[in-house]
């Protein structure tokens, strides 16, 4: 693209913090610039700009500009679409809506494969009956995932969450209605994110958050609120890679007879044996098999 005379000197670097209604909002210090995307990105030839991207902007007039370049990313997630994220807080509710563990496992694979550190957050702990920790939560804790149990109604786990967020860029992801926006409002009063009721009939969220937005935290770091999702495609990967994103397979994997064992039909598979012996949880293994089929089908398409 030809720059007008003098334009090059005005080019600046900023952070894309919100994409909404076809516009891209870039922060340069405290200034907010409303930007369009250079044609090449819109045509899908280059990498599309994601919230969290460091971008190079050419001013057009006033506080409007054009994003001409997306700088190299540290990490990228496409669901929700965010770049340069350190940590994904995967939020599920104890109830309303009921937790969907297949979806949780999907997101864990997605985060691990993108090198984004996952944190599992169980919100609406006030709806747990008898103060009993959900069985499934114990399993995830045993696997080694960081777990935080929260309630925005009873001020539970919020300080722990604040500490986990400090100094990092984190995305809040999970189904609609689990309380992602409510949690962020509770972590930092003043964010004033819109929250929505749960539908009485379906006990589901109503997709209140419609866009992805990067928000600065007073104690340092950034958080991204994102719209809820109810399904998730796995990222493209080789079939052998999938098992690496199930941390509890690791100690057994080395004992499998075959190198590159997929822990499916192979004989003398230590992972399968561990499942039979109850050392690896059955549901997790079933999710692994479901994902494996998807990854293999995906491989065929590319
Ligand atoms: N009982 C209980 N309800 C909560 C808690 N946190 C949030 N809620 C309620 O859950 C509903 C949904 O909250 P939101 O924060 O809008 O949920 P969300 O995950 O942002 O949903 P989307 O933006 O649609 O993805 C609201 O009615 C909240 O008041 C909690 O800790 N306990
Ligand atoms: Mg929300
Ligand atoms: Zn095996």
Automatic annotation (TrEMBL):
Span of domain CP-type G: 74-232
Binding positions for GTP per the UniProt entry: 123-126, 174-182
UniProt keyword Metal-binding present: yes
The keyword Secreted appears for this protein: no
Subcellular location field: Cytoplasm
InterPro entries documented for this protein: G_CP_dom, NA-bd_OB-fold, P-loop_NTPase, Ribosome_biogen_GTPase_RsgA, RsgA_GTPase_dom, RsgA_N
A GO CC term attached to the entry: cytoplasm
EC numbers on record: 3.6.1.-
Cofactor descriptive note: Binds 1 zinc ion per subunit.
Main subcellular localisation: cytoplasm
Keywords recorded for this protein, A-Z: Cytoplasm, GTP-binding, Hydrolase, Metal-binding, Nucleotide-binding, Ribosome biogenesis, RNA-binding, rRNA-binding, Zinc
Annotated binding of Zn(2+), by residue: 256, 261, 263, 269
One Pfam family, short name: RsgA_GTPase
Listed cofactors: Zn(2+)
One GO process term, biological-process aspect: ribosomal small subunit biogenesis
Transmembrane residue ranges: none
Protein family according to the UniProt entry: Belongs to the TRAFAC class YlqF/YawG GTPase family. RsgA subfamily.
Subunit annotation: Monomer. Associates with 30S ribosomal subunit, binds 16S rRNA.
Physiological role: One of several proteins that assist in the late maturation steps of the functional core of the 30S ribosomal subunit. Helps release RbfA from mature subunits. May play a role in the assembly of ribosomal proteins into the subunit. Circularly permuted GTPase that catalyzes slow GTP hydrolysis, GTPase activity is stimulated by the 30S ribosomal subunit.
Alphabetical list of HAMAP family matching this protein: GTPase_RsgA
PANTHER family from the UniProt entry: SMALL RIBOSOMAL SUBUNIT BIOGENESIS GTPASE RSGA, SMALL RIBOSOMAL SUBUNIT BIOGENESIS GTPASE RSGA 1, MITOCHONDRIAL-RELATED
NCBIfam families, per database record: ribosome small subunit-dependent GTPase A
Protein name: Small ribosomal subunit biogenesis GTPase RsgA
Species per Swiss-Prot/TrEMBL record: Desulforamulus aeronauticus DSM 10349
Phylogenetic placement of the source organism: Bacteria, Bacillati, Bacillota, Clostridia, Eubacteriales
